[in-house]
């Protein structure tokens, strides 16, 4: 994966290809260079999947997982695709560890660049921090944050390289979502001093997107310092993509060994030998 310098928006949720093109055009005009197209999977999808599994089991057909494949980008103009790096992201909302395991074990999930979760219960939050290997922990700003964080869980998730997302898109036009966003931001500040915070839009249309410097100013209202606010849409995005890439590729060991050139060794041996070829005059002086 190639990493572009600049501003990141790692969550846009378009409802159609046309809305995606409009969103990408707006992001490029505002100066963003990396975007993640997000697909949300609700826990209720598993209920429908269970009924499908029963029918397919009767026909001896292996059931497909409830995770959809990534959105196709064939209809995106080449000009846009060359102007901004496009990543694929999946966000899973769950309340029990069993449902999380079923979704995470899906084959389609391996096709995504970034994996995010929305824990909707205390059990789901503990399972995320203790067991899951995901990149982002997010929440739905349309409702008040359903889980209560504590310093132990926050630090555990941060040490494992997870990032805490604050999506501002709904809060642009909706006062309730804006209030929930601010409460969540100050909660992260009080518990973890706003460590590992990622700011994204979560936009469904271009009207919910703001320029990078407007987002930085907004982040100051969420309890972030000026340095943290700028990092939340630059360094944080790069760190998330690097973590996601290392998660997909697995651990690796690199050995660095110093190699001495054989040619140098031969020259040294020749210099120290008695058969060194010297001009005739120098040979006489040496022997004399």
Automatic annotation (TrEMBL):
**Which GO BP terms apply?**
tRNA processing
Q: Where in the cell is it found?
A: Nucleus
Main localization (coarse): nucleus
Task: Kindly state which keywords UniProt assigns to this record, in alphabetical order.
Answer: tRNA processing
Question: Which terms in the GO cellular component ontology are assigned?
Answer: nucleolar ribonuclease P complex
Stretch list, region Disordered: 48-72
Pfam families on file: RNase_P_p30
Question: Mind telling me which SUPFAM superfamilies this protein's record contains?
Answer: PHP domain-like
List the GO molecular function terms. Answer: RNA binding
Which family is annotated? Belongs to the eukaryotic/archaeal RNase P protein component 3 family.
What's the protein called, per UniProt? Ribonuclease P protein subunit p30
Name of encoding gene: LOC117639523
């Amino acid at each position: 994966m190639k990493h572009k310098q600049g501003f990141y928006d790692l969550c846009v949720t378009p409802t159609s290809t046309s809305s995606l093109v409009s969103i990408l055009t707006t992001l490029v005009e505002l100066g963003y260079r990396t975007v993640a197209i997000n697909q949300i999977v609700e826990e209720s999808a598993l209920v429908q999947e269970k009924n499908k599994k029963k029918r397919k089991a009767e026909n001896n057909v292996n059931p497909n997982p409830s995770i959809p494949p990534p959105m196709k980008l064939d209809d995106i103009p080449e000009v846009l695709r060359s102007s901004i790096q496009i990543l694929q992201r999946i966000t899973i909302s769950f309340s029990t560890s069993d449902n999380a395991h079923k979704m995470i074990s899906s084959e389609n999930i391996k096709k995504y660049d970034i994996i995010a979760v929305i824990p909707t219960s205390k059990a789901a939050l503990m399972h995320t921090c203790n067991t899951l290997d995901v990149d982002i922990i997010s929440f739905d700003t349309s409702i008040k944050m359903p889980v209560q964080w504590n310093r132990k869980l926050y630090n555990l998730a941060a040490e494992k390289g997870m990032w805490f997302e604050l999506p501002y898109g709904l809060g642009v036009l909706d006062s309730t979502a804006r209030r929930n966003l601010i409460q969540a931001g100050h909660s992260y500040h009080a518990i973890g001093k706003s460590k590992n915070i990622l700011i994204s839009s979560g936009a469904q249309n271009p009207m919910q997107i703001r320029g990078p410097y407007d987002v930085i100013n907004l982040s100051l209202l969420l309890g972030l310092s000026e340095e943290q606010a700028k990092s939340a849409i630059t360094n944080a995005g790069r760190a998330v993509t690097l973590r996601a890439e290392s998660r997909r590729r697995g651990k690796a060991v690199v050995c660095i060994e110093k190699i001495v050139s054989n040619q140098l060794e031969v020259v040294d041996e020749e210099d120290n030998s008695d058969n060194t070829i010297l001009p005739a005059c120098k040979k006489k002086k040496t022997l004399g």
